[in-house]
Amino acid sequence: MAQRDGAPTEMQAWLEMGVSVLAKTGFPGGLDVAGLMRAFAAHNEAVKSAIPAQRLLVYQVKDGWGPLCAFLGAPVPAAPFPRTNDRAEFWDLVSGKK
């Protein structure tokens, strides 16, 4: 989001909305790496304290379909778990290149 000024004009309002939502959840703009790590940890702890354990899946994407599907009571899809989410792909999607 820090590079949102480089996005197409038609995406600016959407990106600003995203920045506003992130700021309201404890991630204001301008945080350095250490600040982001503290905000992330604080946010995770706030979620864990607000949601009953039996209703909350603490999930790492690297674990794939298994834990997610088990939590949801859904069958594991035959398709491989998607493994992309890089910065270049994000900006290509935002800019309409993909």
Characterise the protein shown here.
- This protein is mainly alpha-helical and 98 residues long.
- It folds into 2 domains: 52 residues, no CATH class; 42 residues, no CATH class.
- Helices cover 49% and strands 0% of the residues.
- The protein has 4 helices and no strands.
- The radius of gyration is 17 Å and the shape is globular.
Summarize the SSE layout with pairings.
Blueprint: H1 12-24, H2 33-50, H3 65-72, H4 87-95
Key structural traits:
4 helices, 98 residues, mainly alpha, 2 domains
Quick synopsis:
49% of the residues lie in helices and 0% in strands. The protein has 98 residues and is mainly α.
Percent in helix: 40-55%
Q: End-to-end distance, in Å? A: 19 Å
- Principal-axis shape equals globular
The ordered string of helix (H) and strand (E) elements is HHHH
